[in-house]
């Protein structure tokens, strides 16, 4: 039986980062993963360029039953710490909108950096490992695979949630938590496109591909960003963000022209071009195909601008700035970027990420009930929670 100080289950962002830190402390550390390569989610993230952190990351950008839990880790390993590591390796990167940092070249730069850090620290990695059982006896964890059984003092669970099953995502981390008496909160797909009701699909799938800046609102939370019409429903950053707050049955309130005061715009157009048709005026601030679709849906009748009175304009303003969609559901884990819910943080130490009821067992990254916004926040949670656990495991 192989003996290790630390075994980390999961060769993703959190797991690798934890293993590096543990090995730096002189701990004999092994990472096990069920895939063929490390960092699979890193490689496909950000369109292959990895949105590796966000310069504005703060606890306010995370959802959790315990909103305070993430504060400790995020304050002890910050976005600036990770940026310094990226710079140390000379990886070129750039800021996109809203503080999002992406690699200039490829997400592979981040994975290569982590691999080099593992090599320097002496971390061993074993891939394509199917764990069939985890046992605890005599203060040691036994991790069983068909090939061999390995034993360790500290076991770190970093195998993620249920999102992107085609990358090997499973419920293993949640099952392990329950096996050792930890509570697992209900899970659902997060940062995920929303799907049409059948009646809406028949109408809107014709304009799939149309994108526009909006604000998306659900349950008193509002996100401004782009929205995309698809064959299946609504997507784009604004919709992915709001999907974390949307619940089945909720309405989605969309401002289709957030950068315009529609009443002022139409009044101005009316004065300047009284004979112009309403649809022509609206096509100056909205995609033409969307305007035609709204016309078809009789959201407004097409008429010359001079025929509009103040009440018509006000009604139109309200219709466009508070357009109501009733999504049918989400596309589910297949396309979700994250899993909401997971291992209840009340059972973990926010200082060490160790289970309060089970010495030497740690949970980090997406498997824990901490979910960030879209835009590098989930990677920052992975780095921070991994770093923290690595100081103690």
Characterization of this structure:
Residues 5-391 form the RsdA/BaiN/AoA(So)-like Rossmann fold-like domain. It comes from Alishewanella tabrizica. This protein is of the alpha+beta class. It folds into two domains: 2-188 and 333-390, 3-Layer(bba) Sandwich (FAD/NAD(P)-binding domain); 193-331, Elongation Factor Tu (Ef-tu), domain 3, CATH 2.40.30. 31% of the residues lie in helices and 24% in strands. The protein has helices spanning 13-24, 40-44, 69-76, 79-88, 108-121, 172-179, 198-204, 237-243, 262-272, 278-282, 288-296, 310-321, 377-390; strands spanning 2-9, 29-32, 51-54, 62-63, 93-95, 100-103, 124-126, 133-137, 140-144, 149-157, 184-190, 194-195, 211-218, 221-229, 233-235, 252-255, 323-325, 329-330, 338-343, 361-363, 371-372. The strands form five sheets. Strands 1, 2, 7, 8, 9, 10 and 20 form a seven-stranded mixed sheet that branches. A seven-stranded antiparallel sheet has the order 17-16-13-14-15-12-18. Strand 8 (133-137) and strand 9 (140-144) form a beta hairpin. Helix 1 runs parallel beside helix 13 (377-390), helix 3 (69-76) packs across helix 13 and helix 9 crosses helix 12. The protein is elongated, with a radius of gyration of 25 Å.
């Amino acid at each position: 039986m192989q003996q290790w100080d630390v075994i980390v289950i999961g060769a993703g962002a959190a797991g690798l980062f934890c293993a590096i830190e543990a090995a730096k402390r002189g701990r004999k550390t092994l990472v096990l993963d069920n895939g063929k390569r490390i960092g699979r989610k890193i490689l496909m993230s950000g369109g292959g360029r990895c949105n590796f952190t966000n310069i504005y990351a703060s606890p306010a950008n995370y959802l959790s039953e315990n909103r305070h839990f993430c504060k400790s880790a995020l304050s002890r390993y910050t976005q600036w710490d990770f940026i310094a590591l990226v710079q140390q390796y000379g990886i070129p990167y750039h800021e996109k909108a809203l503080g999002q940092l992406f690699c200039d070249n490829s997400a592979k730069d981040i994975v290569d950096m982590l691999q080099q850090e593992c090599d320097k620290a002496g971390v061993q990695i074993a891939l394509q490992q199917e764990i069939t059982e985890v046992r605890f006896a005599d203060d040691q964890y036994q991790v069983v695979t068909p090939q061999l059984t390995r034993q360790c003092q500290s076991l770190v669970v970093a195998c993620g949630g249920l999102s992107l099953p085609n990358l090997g995502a499973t419920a293993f981390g949640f099952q392990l938590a329950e096996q050792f008496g930890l509570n697992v909160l209900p899970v659902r797909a997060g940062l995920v496109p929303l799907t049409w009701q059948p009646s809406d699909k028949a109408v809107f799938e014709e304009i799939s591909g149309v994108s526009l800046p909006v604000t998306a609102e659900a349950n008193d939370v509002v996100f401004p960003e782009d929205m995309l019409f698809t064959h299946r429903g609504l997507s784009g950053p604004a919709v992915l963000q709001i999907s974390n707050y949307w619940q089945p049955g909720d309405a989605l309130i969309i401002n289709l022209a957030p950068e315009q005061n529609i009443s002022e715009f139409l009044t101005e157009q009316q004065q300047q071009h009284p004979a112009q048709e309403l649809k022509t005026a609206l096509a100056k601030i909205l995609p033409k195909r969307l305007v035609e679709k709204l016309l078809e849906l009789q959201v407004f009748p097409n008429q010359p601008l001079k025929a509009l009175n103040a009440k018509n304009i006000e009604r139109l303003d309200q219709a466009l700035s508070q357009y109501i969609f009733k999504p049918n559901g989400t596309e589910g884990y297949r396309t979700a970027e994250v899993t909401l819910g997971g291992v209840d943080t009340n059972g973990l130490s926010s200082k060490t990420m160790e289970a309060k009821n089970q010495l030497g067992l740690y949970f980090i990254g997406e498997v824990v009930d901490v979910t960030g916004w879209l835009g590098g926040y989930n990677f920052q949670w992975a780095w921070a929670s991994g770093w923290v656990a690595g100081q103690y495991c």
